[in-house]
């Protein structure tokens, strides 16, 4: 009994002495909680630096965006291939995810060796080897000739701009293959796969092992938002708020950040805690000066640190009686598995003796105790450092969520964590001490990164399939040059039909004579009233023209026309118009003045003279009853009479295209075409009288209001009309009519967009598949919104804000799609409009027998004016389709009221001449 006590006493004394000795020797490796908290703060600063746009280039902790945005939600499914390269083992797997809707993953894997000559040889050979292993796996599993998506777990720092691409920043750990740094590893692998014609794999995702681990664990525990590797290397990833990630556009939701914490300290930030052993180890490594934090922590280095310490202690006579063996001098002789074995609770001491003996040493009992303690200090320091950095991440997560207490799960993997007997316990304990306000669950990843990578790939594959569906819908709006030439030709035919007496009445492009025969010559003068009805705004104007100086002064007022009046009775509409005139005269102090009036009336009218205009049919948003077939001048006169307050001399009725041409013609006599790209779409132009069969006389020219909006009403452009165009048409006030207008003008473009969005939402591709009340509301996308959404200067966030203003609750991804949809629709509109314009200018050129035509088009309309790309695309198309015409587009600054007044002035002069 006594002897046993004596032994125990002797042993504990020996132990105490040895421990004290080692503690003294490794004083610098023992880190107090105070130091750890300090390191934690430093790491917090480093993370911030890595996330900032300006500080990132010089930051040592790179905080790499991974483009993984969501943790698995259980809806993932399919069959996926997975490669896992960069840890201690290289593995190829196949994962079958969530068959029959229940969360379930089946995996088949195969490990392949990674000999040094491959991982430190030529880069292309490395990827060829990887491709060969994949081919072998697929052959064994009978997967050749099957198209499969692949997720690549690649455990090295890669700069990603999308999920399926990553530029290798630097090799770490044991890898150092030539010619890969700075290149995209996915392309490298794709290139190598070209040697295997029988394989059909689509690399959809590149993930770091930390990310794979986090995703694997998140499949079981949705609280998992951090992934940590403590294996050959060490690293962590976590879900960061998008609004904090400067390097990626968008502010919504979160994205996983691969911290690459292994590089912490590479800028000298940890010099005060690094020891001479760390420095020696670094010098002998494959990447001196790099991954300094990793080199104090991870499995690849722990054994070597222990060896360097033992060697130094032996040299100092503190161990093995001062004797060293050649093995103790050999780099890599002690591995992490040895450290783990030596620290085992019961067998540890015996293991230590065996290991040291195997190294050719003759350890005493005291030596074994001391060596065991060296291991403990080294591995403890590792766990402590890891804990400090992890505590920084957890604090960041808690602060991001503005929580007092954070409940979260950390997914962990890596051989050091898995095989070292004390490591997990120590790590967990220190983390909990450093961040007492975080309840952390540590979850060991059971199936490595593979399952997580398959999950990411599953999501990517779903996104890819959705992308295809979106592209398919938008492809309908992409017109080939051939199709545009076809449009131009058909328009040309319709223009001729409209002009010919025999076909005129049946023509869809009505080619209405306007009885405007010349451009203003500068002699016009006087005071005129003008009305401008049919565009976005209804305006009443007073126009003062001074002769000789080509100067015009205008005063105007905008009045609203309520929907119930636009679509009420004709009498109500005209009474309202007269009411507005009365208000205006009152406002201008002109009550009782009998002024000549020019009426811009932007609808198709059959005219027999300048002051007679029978409305053929309403277009756009008007539908007042009892007007079609009536003379608009008569209706206005009667309304004035009904009011019996003032009299007006209605001299001219003009279409807005004509008013616009005149407005511009006053500045540029070469302006012989008027174009409106606004609520509606239409063109007028000066035509040779001899070509206008419906009007007597062959001399000179007359302006023709083409009313090209009706182009296609006979079905001749149905080949390019999409289901969305048809839906817009069916929901309009005039189904079957104005088909070309409905593809090209502001009033309808937004509606086409809305129809596409509804369809994409129904397919589950937008707005989380929810069609909101707002989206069902006709007319929400006015031209101004389309124009804003498509503005190049707009960040995604602003697009989202506009959509929110419209009552559409969209994610960033939604916003991207909406912007694309708007782009496709407006581009087609501009191209179609360009094809129509090309037909007109080419006709003018040919009619005049000219080699080259130089002509100006006066333009107005909100679409043309506000949209960021419409005018450019329109002009490019005209240039392309009518290369022999030199067309200048002149924007009308003053609206068509001015032109209407000028026409009135000319008509008044002619009238007076006739009267005399
Ligand atoms: C494995 C993962 O389980 O752990 C790998 O599948 C990862 O992706 C590895 O790289 C990390 O540990 P080690 O010890 O193999 O480097
Ligand atoms: C205005 C003209 O500037 O533009 C109107 O004065 C014309 O006559 C209008 O109808 C067309 O554009 P929108 O976009 O208002 O229909
Ligand atoms: C190294 C790599 C890193 C990886 C880690 C764990 O630190 O740079 O990308 O996650 O090892 O394998
Ligand atoms: C509609 C009208 C037309 C007008 C055009 C532009 O197409 O029918 O007359 O010119 O809109 O406002």
UniProtKB/TrEMBL annotation:
Enzyme class: transferase
Keywords: Allosteric enzyme, ATP-binding, Cytoplasm, Glycolysis, Kinase, Membrane, Mitochondrion, Mitochondrion outer membrane, Nucleotide-binding, Repeat, Transferase
Domain Hexokinase N-terminal residues, every copy: 22-219, 470-666
Taxonomy, superkingdom: Eukaryota
Recorded GO CC terms: cytosol; mitochondrial outer membrane
Listed SUPFAM superfamilies: Actin-like ATPase domain (SSF53067)
This enzyme's EC code(s): 2.7.1.1
Protein's name according to its UniProt entry: hexokinase
Protein's organism: Phyllostomus discolor
The encoding gene: HKDC1
